[in-house]
Amino acid sequence: MLSKKPVILIILITILTSLSLGSQSSKEIVLENITGYFAQKIGVDESDIFMKLLHYPDNLKISANSKILVESRNAVPGLGHQTLKLKVFLKNGTIENYRITVTVSAKMKILVAKTDLKRNEWLDENKLEIKTVLITNNNLNIVKSIEQVKGLVTKQVIRAGDQIKRDMLYVKPDIERGENITLQFVRNHILIEADGKAKESGVIGDKIRVMCETSRKFVKGTILTPNVVVVNIK
């Protein structure tokens, strides 16, 4: 009489293999959904998203027909190490919540310095260029186009080839604190001019604190031009 052990062993191996493949399939489906989520939110192709799975719940089993919703803490997710919330909608109407930890990076077209840039230097297209760079974190601070930096100047020295980041730039004020200016005191249709000094920085349209050199008094006025502040007297 032949032994049934080999048959039992084959069946057991088949079951274990099936479970293993099912688990891998679940991970692939999850990773595809997460990749698509980051690609859409960041604005790159799915092929430019690179992900490493750090934590995957053992009890998460899904199929290709499962509806999955990926959520992060921010409307535009950041790159790098993070934990995401995964909602799985089941056929019976219930929702299962899971936490998945991943490290995400992406190839992105960003703005870099073409030449060395000094502090307080105006930016233009001749000093900048677009390059594809692998970004591993802090993607919300990068600049993607030259249009985004028009009218901005550098806060610091930036070397050729360095990424241009938002916190490296600022809007140069039309009037800077400590600058000598012309004050126009206006009441009804009467205008009187006097020398003054800006006590705050600002751009055209801003209200800033100024000092009249004649009276040594401090007043608030509106920047009219890069050298003139209007003070309305009631």
Concise synopsis of the structure shown:
With 234 residues, the protein is α+β, with helices and mostly antiparallel strands. It contains 1 helix and 12 strands. The strands form 3 sheets. Strands 1, 2, 3, 4 and 5 form a 5-stranded antiparallel β-sheet that branches. A 5-stranded mixed barrel has the order 8-9-10-11-12. Strands 6-7 form a two-stranded antiparallel ribbon.
Key attributes of the depicted protein:
single chain, 234 residues, alpha+beta, Type Iii Antifreeze Protein Isoform Hplc 12, 5-stranded antiparallel β-sheet, 12 strands
Helix content: 10-25%
Termini Cα gap: 114 Å
Structural class: alpha+beta
Mean pLDDT: 87
Largest sheet report: 5 strands, antiparallel
Would you mind describing this structure in some detail?
The chain is an alpha+beta fold and about 230 residues long. It has three domains: about 10-105, no CATH class; about 110-170, Antifreeze-like/N-acetylneuraminic acid synthase C-terminal domain (Type Iii Antifreeze Protein Isoform Hplc 12), CATH 3.90.1210.10; about 180-230, SH3 type barrels. It is built from one helix and twelve strands; from the N terminus they run αββββββββββββ. The strands form three sheets. Strands 1, 2, 3, 4 and 5 form a five-stranded antiparallel β-sheet that branches.
Topology:
Layout: H1 5-42, E1 49-55, E2 67-71, E3 80-89, E4 95-113, E5 128-135, E6 152-154, E7 169-171, E8 180-187, E9 190-198, E10 207-212, E11 218-225, E12 228-232
Parallel strand pairs: 8-12
Antiparallel strand pairs: 1-4, 2-3, 3-4, 4-5, 6-7, 8-9, 9-10, 10-11, 11-12
